[in-house]
Amino acid sequence: MLQNRFGKLAATALAGSMLMGAAACGGGEETSSAQPSGAGTSAPAASGAKVGLAYDIGGRGDQSFNDSAAAGLDKAKAELSLADTKELEAGSGETEAAKEERLRLLASGGYSPIIAVGFAYSGPVKKVAAEFPDVKFAIVDDAAATAPNITNLLFAEHEGSFLVGAAAALKSKKNHVGFVGGVQVPLINKFEAGFIAGAKAVKPDIKIDVKYLTQPPDFGGFNDPAKGKTAAEGMLDAGADVIYHAAGGSGGGVFEAAKAAKGLAIGVDSDQAKTAAPDLQGVIMTSMVKKVDIAVYDFLKGVAGNTVKSGPAVYNLKAGGVDYSTTGGQVDDIKTKLEEYKQQIISGKITVPEKTS
């Protein structure tokens, strides 16, 4: 969805030019494991593959969602015999036609597999995959784009968010926490639902403020630190002392506000106590880690071994696809309790809601 989507925003290029791109995070229904299901794809397998990766808004360097995907690609470069890689970025507010052309450019250039980072690629991936049936595609955070040559890399964001919600409630001294979502879409609602459930599991009467920065089709909420800061300042001024963001690059503004108010923040997607700006890392007590890097690497390894399959590959808490981070030691005193909640989710004793209503 979802960490700081800092970094550069590339301008949308015209069809046929070297488009740079990606959209915003996406989502879908979960199953119980991280194993792809469905029929195998038809493209030739992969030793020496040319890999294309189309980023979400912000691209490599966002310190979050995109950087996690980039880390998976980097690991594949180091460990698999990839012939070539091409990474393209997106600009804010671009059309589906631009996304299609970006994917088409990669496919026509001989890149296979191609990985699209984010649910906004759903329609474009489905369309271009039909045009290039011998090219393998993967899409992160979307279950809607289906075809014999598409693998859907999905995550149980609500389960990881439950754990950081519990952490927020355990750490809050004011019984008041907040959630900042980048864009009000079903995927980000999963983060909110899990966070609320986790906080209320600890303190049923806790006050929880919720603010979304933009509404679709405006996905700028994933890369607007100023809006993130303003939203967090409002919550902190109203009495919240811990704020969780699922807002990509906008999260940097949340961290700035928390630091200024001497509050605490919770990162998302990556371990942001490692990736955020150095002067802000200390305010991040934990992050909901979403292991896009593992999903990307697993997919590329499957292509290399000719074992990749189409359909959903779901990375949930049991599969290690989501978790909470412990960098900085700020949750060491509550880790035993968080681990208890984790095991209850894995065992099925706790079922975490995926929607707030």
Structure characterization notes:
This protein has a domain at 157-290 and 323-347: Response regulator (Rossmann fold, 3-Layer(aba) Sandwich). 34% of the residues lie in helices and 20% in strands. It contains 10 helices and 12 strands. A 6-stranded parallel β-sheet has the order 2-1-3-4-5-11, sandwiched between helices. It has a 6-stranded mixed β-sheet with strand order 7-6-8-9-10-12, with helices on both faces. Helix 5 (186-202) links the parallel strand 6 (176-183) and strand 7 (207-214). Helix 1 runs parallel beside helix 9, helix 2 (96-108) packs parallel to helix 3 (122-131) and helix 4 (157-171) packs antiparallel against helix 10 (335-347). The protein starts with 49 loop residues before the first strand and ends in a 10-residue tail after the last helix. It is a lipid-anchor.
Are there runs of 5+ residues with pLDDT below 50, and where?
Answer: 1-46
CATH class of the domain at 157-290 and 323-347 equals: Alpha Beta
What is the helical fraction, as a range of percent? 25-40%
In whole angstroms, the N-to-C terminal distance is 20 Å
CATH homologous superfamily of the domain at 157-290 and 323-347 - what is it?
A: Response regulator
Radius of gyration in whole Å, from Cα? 19 Å
